Amino acid sequence: MSLERARAYLEEKGLGDRIIIPEESSATVELAAKALGTQPERIAKTMSFLLGENAILILTEGTARVDNQKFKAQFHTKAKMIPRELVEEKIGHEPGGVCPFGVKEGVVTYLDVSLKKYDIVYPAAGTDHSAVKLTPQELEACLEAEWVDVCKENAE
Questions:
Q1: Which domain, by its residues, includes 36?
Q2: Strands in the chain per DSSP E
Q3: Would 16 be classed as within a structural domain?
Q4: pLDDT digits (tens, 9 = 90+) for 142-153
């Protein structure tokens, strides 16, 4: 069901042909990178947070970590991830396949600037065996998402 919602969303945006269904699991950044034959940094990791009662998603570079001070400066509250058992209820996708495509109404998606340094990134497509090949600009346009800077600087 999640893949179908993600596919319908992407097809509506003219990007349905970008979905990849690898044989191997893509449930974690490491597994997705291996399954797709790319670097872990290029996996667009989708993290789900609660702002009060509202759910938001932030897509980051695969190896990035949220900086609590930057998060609080951006959203005026402490970073609180959605508990695993509530992710599907709040977002519409199960853990391991959480993506920004075809989410529940009211879920706002943000893109972390850590993604901007890559020409191609791979967010999930609603399951633990899916991905979407997109440029950061295509991701921004199809999601109509705002860019934020909430991650720690990675040591190159």
A1: 2-148
A2: 19-20, 45-51, 54-60, 108-112, 131-132, 146-148
A3: yes
A4: 999 999 999 998
How many Å apart are CA 63 and CA 49, to the nearest integer? Answer: 18
For 12-34, b where at least 16 C-beta lie within 10 A, e where not — what string?
eeebeebbeeeeeebbebebbbe
| Encoded tokens for 9 | 């969303």
Each residue's pLDDT tens digit, 42-93: 999 999 999 999 999 999 999 999 999 999 999 999 999 999 999 999 999 9
**Phi-psi group of 106: left, alpha or beta (phi > 0 → left; psi -120 to 50 → alpha; rest → beta):** left
CATH code of 51's domain:
3.90.960.10
Alpha-carbon span 55 to 82, nearest angstrom: 8
Residue 154 lies in a domain: no
Q: Which two tokens stand for residue 40?
A: 């872990």
Does pTM surpass 0.85?
yes
